[in-house]
Amino acid sequence: MMNRPLILASKSPRRSQLLREAGFEFTVAGFDTNEDFAQDMPPFEVAPMLAQRKARAGAHLLQHDEIILAADSTVVIDNIILNKPEDYNDAFRMIRLLSGKKHSVVTGVCLLDKHQEKVFSGITHVWFDELTDAEIDYYITTCQPYDKAGAYGAQEWIGHCKINKIEGTYQNVMGLPVDLVYKYLMELNRSFRLRSTSGFS
User: Fold this and answer.
1) Minimal CA–CA distance to 85: which of 163, 30, 152?
2) Total Cβ atoms within 10 A of residue 163
3) How confident is the model at residue 32, as a pLDDT?
């Protein structure tokens, strides 16, 4: 479907898994970027901004027809962003905040080639059942969710046992809105073919 080199600017094993399952071949090249953002920035705009920053950090890899794919996920509840937890107590605080409530997972994506840049977001609303302190402790101790925004992974125990409803795609909660990624990669591929057949590069 697409014969252009795809570079995933993320070391996330979950994003690699989702791309592979969607049939894409790609290489991985993660970049260290500053993930700070203005505290007055609207919460739903943070993830796409950070994804764009990550993609641009890898722009030097664009030599010919490569496409860079970068992504960033945030968990938003009551207009507050929950980042990756610093430690056990921080993870406990986050999950206690999510318990019995609705929150949103925003995954921002940036697709970048030598001619175009496309920035977009997948948004999924997630409802948790109530969790007891013992259940929160069990999850954190067992799954060690310190590398995950909001201190949880939907593919782990907490997702199997405590998510009772979602609006949007499950893949987006895992870290990548695969439906949108596919749509916009195909658009970039079509525009590349049009440039090639018209003599532009």
Assistant:
1) 152
2) 16
3) 79
Which residues contact residue 153 at a Cβ distance below 8 angstroms, ignoring those fewer than 6 apart? 14, 143, 145, 159, 174
Q: What is the distance between the alpha carbons of residues 123 and 73, in angstroms, rounded to a whole number?
A: 10
Place of tokens 């596919």: 182
Q: What token pair was written down for 32?
A: 């260290």
Q: Which helix (H) or strand (E) element contains residue 57?
A: helix 43-57
Q: Please indicate whether residue 72 is annotated as part of the active site.
A: yes
**How many Cβ atoms sit within 10 Å of the Cβ of residue 120?**
16
| Token pair for 71 | 């992504």
Catalytic residue of the set 36, 72, 87, 113: 72
Q: What is the CB neighbour count within 10 angstroms for residue 124?
A: 20
**Whole-prediction pTM value?**
0.90
pLDDT at 192: 62
CB 168 within 8 A of CB 125: yes
Q: Are 113 and 67 in contact (CB under 8 A)?
A: yes
